[in-house]
Design a protein that fits this description.
It is a single chain. This protein is mostly helical. Helix content is 66%, strand content 0%. The protein contains 6 helices and no strands. Helix 2 runs antiparallel to helix 3, helix 3 crosses helix 5 and helix 3 runs parallel beside helix 6. The longest helix has 26 residues. It is elongated, with a radius of gyration of 28 Å. This is DUF4145 domain-containing protein. Keywords: Membrane, Transmembrane, Transmembrane helix.
Amino acid sequence: MEETIFNLEPATRAATSLPPVAIAVIAVLILLILAAMVIVLRRYLTQPEMHGMSREEIRARWEEIEKIGASSVMGGKMAIVEADKLLDSSLKSMTIPGETLGERLKFASYKYPELRKVWFAHKLRNQLVHEASFEISVSQAKAALHEYKKALRVIHVL
């Protein structure tokens, strides 16, 4: 009996096949991209992690600020400065990058576009702190505090 030997190799080989090293490099790059996408998506979908101040501390501090702001015009000025500090501390606790509150607000505004509305209050605070003769009305102070409160709610700390 005669044995028949079959040729099991493909009849034609693709001219564009990649070497195994190139395939391995591409696979690693794809895995890195997928891992980065998972990390970004996870951060986007979950509440921000707090480092430093807890949400309870922030809420307690906000209640104090509201009491100060309701007392007088001077109390309103003081409350604006304290609210600005509280927002800054909250963004720092969320590890939002930036050297100043202004830089942190710019960065955080990409994820939380509503934060752009707090710029009015932050600029008012800057005028209070840096201009000796700057005066505000009770309604301006209330509006600024309202914007700070909304900002703290937008970032889910209040």
